[in-house]
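Supplementary Note 3. Input sequence used for the single-chain structure prediction.
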Amino acid sequence: MLAKYIHEVNADYRRIRQRIPLGVLHTKAEYDQAVAVLDDILDEIGQQETHPLADLAETLALSIEAYEDTHVAMTDASGPEILRSLMEDHELAQSDLPEIGSQGVLSEILSGKRDLNVRQITQLSARFGVSPALFMPISTRTPKSRTTKTRKPRT
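The predicted structure, written as discrete structure tokens, is reproduced below.
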């Protein structure tokens, strides 16, 4: 019985892997595909942490993070600093980002008085075409032993 179950799971897993890069990401193409799939999943599930695809989103995010830890140099820049840099690169004013909140909310985020929430991170990553991990707090996206790397946001 167990052998039959493993055979069925293997077949299902292979079908899923043809569309979704699960596991260790070895190439930039796999990374780009994983980011695109994660963005689509986040669009689908929104903030529903109990959605059936939430575990898949978390698994993809961990694979993306592992790839970035190995292949993408990172700075100690915070989410607000990265957002400010992206706004400058795209010549955006605070009023150009109404999806994030009022200008007052955006001012508090940029000054570090307020953290970005999941909805805002999702919208910013989609708008700028970057990984949501870029806006995560430094302590959750960069192990302490890797604080000497430098990363420029992709634009």
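Confidence is low (pLDDT under 50) at residues 140-155. The two ends are 51 Å apart (CA to CA).
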